[in-house]
Write the C-alpha cells for this entry.
Amino acid sequence: MKEELEFFQAWWKILKKYWNPPAKDNESKEAEKFWKSLISDCRNLRKRYDHNKLFEPFARKMCLDLIDEIDRRAVELHKKER
C-alpha cells in the first residue's frame, strides 16, 4: 500500500509539472526538451516499480496514460492558434 501511495504522489507531481505543454507542432529546443523530460520522468517512475510484478503493469499503463493526457492537452490548448 505504501508503494501505491508513493506512486500516485509522484504521478501527480509529474502531471502538475507538465500540465501546460507546448503546441505539438512547436519544434523549438524548449518544446523538444519538454517532451523528452516528460517521457523520461514517466519512464523513471515506472522503473521504480519493476520489482513489483503485480503493480508494474498498472504503473506502466498509468504512465502511458499520463503521456497521452498531456499530449491531448497540448492539442486542446493550442487548437485556437491554428
Notes: Residues 2-19+26-81 form one domain. The chain has a mean pLDDT of 93.
